[in-house]
Amino acid sequence: MKSFIFDIDGTLLDTEAMYMTSLQAILHERGIEKSYAELATTFGIPSKDALLRLKIPAWEDVLALWGPRTQDYRDTVAIYAGVTAALADLKARGAQLAIMTSKRQFEYDRDVVSLGLDQYFSQAIVAEDVANGKPAPDGILLAMQRLGSTSADTVYVGDTIYDQEAAHAAGVAFGFAAWNGKRPDDLQPDVSFLTPAAMLKLL
């Protein structure tokens, strides 16, 4: 593999609590009670799609509140152990690195750029760059186009069924970020990485 394209949430960064707890709080204020577990089933897809899947009434209003409210839970976000070193090693050994995320641009700037992780990536595809978010392949295909990579030498690294479906729809291998300690029952990855450093074996 020469090209590694990454999801962010649950892959590079542990952000689940930030998103789910903030959404749960907003819904509670509107008289809508949803368990954390139910909300978490939508983690990893675009925010609009998550709200529609959850059948949230007046979802447009909730969406407008959700982004700003996550700022109240920023102290729960952390880079997974070993990620920074692995990215540095991959880049140093000539791998092409890109991000393809369901995050909007302001979220990418807030969560990735603010932590300095953007320095490892030559391309970043965010929600505004594509017409269709995951599990559609649009974002991965755009990242490959910008990298000048082929399906044979590209792996998409993520942590959810939506990541797997997007990777396979794009015709690339799906690498599961098993270092996050969670494994959905419906995943059938082409390769699993127990640690970030394990990605180096694909070079």
Automatic annotation (TrEMBL):
Short name of any one Pfam family annotated for the protein: HAD_2
GO BP terms: DNA repair
SUPFAM superfamilies, per database record: HAD-like (SSF56784)
GO cellular component term, pick one: cytosol
The entry's keywords: Hydrolase
GO MF term set: phosphoglycolate phosphatase activity
InterPro entries reported in the protein's UniProt record: HAD-like_hydrolase_sf, HAD-like_sf, HAD-SF_hydro_IA, HAD_2, HAD_sf, PGP-like_dom2
Record keyword Hydrolase present: yes
Protein name: HAD family hydrolase
Species, as recorded: Candidatus Levilactobacillus faecigallinarum
